[in-house]
Structures are given as C-alpha cells and as structure tokens.
Amino acid sequence: MVLRCRDLGETDRLVTLYSREHGKQQAVARGVRRAASRRAGSLQPFAHLRCLVARGRTLDVIAQVELLNSFAKLRDDLTLLTWAGHILELVDAAAGEGDRGASFPLLLAALHLLAGGADPELTARAFELRHLSAAGLEPELTICCRCGGPLGDQGELRFNPAEGGAICAACGKTSGDRLLRRGILATMLYLKDADLRQVDRLVVSARDRAELEALLRAYLEFHLDRPLRSLAFLDTLREQEH
Ligand SMILES: [Zn+2]
C-alpha cells in the first residue's frame, strides 16, 4: 500500500510503502515522472500494489509494480478522501521500527469498507482503536489505569490520555481528566472488538460521535506526539457545511 509520495530530483518519486511483510519502508521509483511512464498512476496514495523492491546502495528501488486496486472511489468525495487519508496518516505515524506490517490486513479491510459505502466516521474510529492495539498503544478501557481497580458501575468515569485510558470514579478528578460517559465507553469497546464490517450498524448520536472523537483524538495526539492533520482538515470541512 502506498502511504505517501514526494518528488525526488527531476524525474523520480520517493514512495512510502506499508506492506504485510516489511511494515513501513521507503523506496524510490526511478523515472516515474517522465511523460511516458506508465507506472505514475500506480504510485500514488491508497494504491494497493504487488511490487518488487531491490536493495540499493543508499535507497531501495521499486523495480516492478503491479496495481491491484487504486481505490479510485475514495477520491470521488472530499470528506471520504479525508477520512481515508486519516487512516493512512495513522499507519504512517504509528509504524515504528518493530512494526512488521501488523496493521496491514486492517488497513486493507478499512479502505475496502470506505470505498464500499460504510460509515466513514465509525469505520475510522474502529480503525483507530484496533491500530493502536496493533502498535502496542491500546488505551485501557476495562480497568482503571490509575489504581488498577475495576471501573465499577457507579459514579462518573474519567479518561486521561497521558495516563493511558479510563479512570474509575473512586480515583477522583485530576487536571488532565476528561469525562467518560458510560455510553461512550460501551461504544469504544464495541468498535474495538466487533467485526469491522458490522461497526456501522451501530446507531451513534451526533453528540456521542463528537465526544468519541474528542477523546480518541486527544489520546492519539498524545501518544503519537503530533497533531493529526486530516482531522484538523475535517473540522474545516464541517465548518463549511454549516
Ligand atoms: Zn482508579
């Protein structure tokens, strides 16, 4: 899968790939920006490829490319494209040295669902939770991450991104805590564990979607240590709709 590309020199393109076998890697596509190159269309974000990468002295080189799916449908609609871009951005951000492609099947499944008309927001939320697990950054949602005790069924729960997840009612409130309504917690647990194809059967109100996004965004931005550009762009798109 092509995560991103940038121009290199006069005619080349530097491509960031994510594969089942090697995780994230960079390789150069030589001569791909020449007018006659037939590979240019295959080497762009979202392209699912079968490719042969040759070891180079400084940079690996893409020797052969077979396009399996360009996911052209994702480009039909700017909002859909931005949600899909958010998914690629997360893979790019959280694929560390030890990542040998653990999120690849999930990435491919999520893009197929988005292209097939699934709810992009819930699909992306489910992807966020599962990708965090694959990257070893899963939020704690079943016990209190401050005292290690059960979350119980009484009192107000909190969520603290820096501490790693849910906080029980008995632990009280500190400055970084956000309110975690029990309905939001249940939605998170469903999105994390249900079959990805079933997540958009869930009915989630606009208010719950906004709270879910705020909590997960704070968690992702803290643990990936960067602002999420696609989500910021989605804010702009939403403002324009109103
Ligand atoms: Zn606690």
Number of helices: 6
Averaging pLDDT over every residue, what do you get?
93
Largest sheet: 5 strands, mixed
Assembly classification: single chain
What name goes with the CATH superfamily of the largest domain?
Recombination protein O, C-terminal domain
List cofactors, ions and other ligands.
zinc ion
Shape call: elongated
Record field, number of beta strands? 8
Structural class: alpha+beta
Report the order of strands and helices.
EEEEEHHHEEEHHH
Number of individual domains:
2
**For the largest beta sheet, what order do the strands appear in spatially?**
1-2-3-5-4
- Poorly predicted residue ranges: none
The CATH architecture assignment of the largest domain turns out to be Up-down Bundle
Name of the top-level CATH class of the largest domain = Mainly Alpha
Radius of gyration: 20 Å
Separation of the first and last Cα atoms: 35 Å
Portion in beta strands: 15-25%
Which bin fits the share of residues in helices? 25-40%
CATH topology of the largest domain: de novo design (two linked rop proteins)
